[in-house]
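seq:
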Amino acid sequence: MASAGDVFDHGRHGTSLSQVQEAKTSRCSPSSGDGPPKPLLIAAPSDAGEYPVVVFLHGYLANNYFYSQLLQHVASHGFILIAPQLYTFSGPDTTGEINSAAAVIDWLADGLSSSLPPDVRPNLTAVSISGHSRGGKVAFALGLGHAKTALPLAALIAVDPVDGTGRGSQTPPPILTYKSASLRVPAPVMVIGTGLGEVPRGVLRPPCAPLGVSHAEFYHECAAPACHLVARDYGHTDMMDDVTCGAKGLVTRAVCKSGGARAPMRRFVAGAMVAFLKKWVDGRPQWLDGIRERPEVAPVVLSAVEFRDAGTRIHGAMLPA
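struct:
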């Protein structure tokens, strides 16, 4: 019999990881060819079959391939992961990347099938959206209708989401309202948090996920159904690949406070995503229910395991340190 901990290990599917270049543009032809509106990293099962689709949005100034190990873990459990590179550098306004992410979602129906392994088919009756850090904010923005998309939303997962550098300094467009249950996303929501994200790396370095604009406030404002899991001893970028090269990769190690080795946190985030998707997309709740009942099955210590069910009060608890 499957146990809740199974989702924290790689699944039964082999996986493929491929890059898809964006459609070429010119002054005379704003978009030409059949490529997507942004470069994509695609992780998919290599076994023939039809699989649900998850769009994953990278964090601030990160590269999409910094999450390749995370994406392949989720894909090994029977999901197709689409990770667009929304920008190279960007200012505080997220409007452009919200619109770009919506354009990628709209491209999926006509363009995705030709970019997948042979006999691997996407199920596009609905799409799930996930994102890390600023990408988590963008995921919420899409769920709340800041940009219209052609596909309905199946589920939303925000990994240590951030909306600005501190309360009162949210980046436009602001998502947080500081009102309970005000974020009424038309799909179930999971918010994954980190215990060290709100802790500065040093005296002169601000935290990467400041208190008041990060995971706890996002969950507080989520309407049901929603859940909230927090990895106590890990930091804001600890779910990324073991090796992140280049200047941006060095920043992921140097700027945010870390819990050390990334593998346990990455296994936790990937497994939590799988458990949530299995329940709300595949209709198989046993893995998420197992984590809810036995948080100790996670490969990290959880300081919060909270569930807000539709029509009920919050269940779960803040766990002792």
